[in-house]
Design a protein that fits this description.
By secondary structure, this protein is α/β, with parallel strands linked by helices. The protein contains five helices and seven strands. It has a five-stranded mixed β-sheet. Strands 1-2 form a two-stranded antiparallel ribbon. The longest helix has 16 residues. The chain binds zinc ion.
Amino acid sequence: MTRWADRQNEAMTNGPVRCEHCGQANRVPAAAAGTPRCGKCHQPLPWIADADDTTFAEVADAAKVPVVVDLWAPWCGPCRMVSPALEQLARDLAGQVKLVKVNVDVAPQISQRFAAQAIPTLLVLRGGQVVARQTGAVPLAALRAWVDQALATAAP
Ligand SMILES: [Zn+2]
């Protein structure tokens, strides 16, 4: 058993995360001090978590890696288009970023905090501070360029 798998009393991300390197299914906590790694081969795992008004501080603000926030809602068509691209990005940048998805319908305080007047609104947070912001759906390549630039400019 690994340290990650032992943390069973804490909130977990949705379902097991399959390692792209060895195929191992891993349980991944929604919030943790470091970044998740595969229990078998120790490669970084994609980190995709949900947050709401109650959990956002712990899941997003306290994260030690840059956080890509997806402010979305179930009824939003463009959100359903951008979500798979964001998840692909989280897989491509495993160990470097965390993707936190916030359903604005159940997170009015977070929605208000970031003045999300249109969705999807995408943010890059570092230590709880917004370092980049994007409104509306964009294709994967543009999303990737946007996040890469945010990570480069946000480096301390
Ligand atoms: Zn693995």
